[in-house]
Amino acid sequence: MAEAVGADVVQAAVEGRVPETAIRTMVVTCSRCQSVGSCLEWLEEHAAGAQEAPDYCLNKGLFERVKGA
Fold first, then answer.
1. What residues have CB less than 8 Å from 2, skipping those under 6 apart?
2. SS in 3 state form for 29-44?
3. Which DSSP helix (H) or strand (E) runs through 64?
4. C-alpha closest to that of 2 among 69, 17, 16, 61
5. What is each CA distance from 51 to 11, 35, 48, in whole angstroms?
6. Cα separation of 44 and 11, whole Å?
7. Tens digit of pLDDT for each residue in 57-67?
8. How far is CA 1 from CA 28, 58, in A?
9. What's the average model confidence in pLDDT over 16-32?
10. How far is CA 19 from CA 15, 23, 33, 40, in A?
11. Is the model's pLDDT at 68 over the cut of 70?
């Protein structure tokens, strides 16, 4: 999802724009998502990219912070 919306969380952590723990938190949050089917469908539909993650994405706020930092 991060890649699809252009949020390079790893690079943001390397640059110190977000804490390194943000990567782990993002993965754990994603693994607990209850919208897996919707997410997979969204990712397929937006393979070329998108401006923002869908509202149900639990990591949407992190992606927005990374892109806006």
1. 8, 9, 26, 59, 63, 66
2. HHHCCCCHHHHHHHHH
3. helix 60-68
4. 61
5. 18, 20, 11
6. 24
7. 999 999 999 99
8. 14, 11
9. 94
10. 9, 8, 22, 27
11. yes
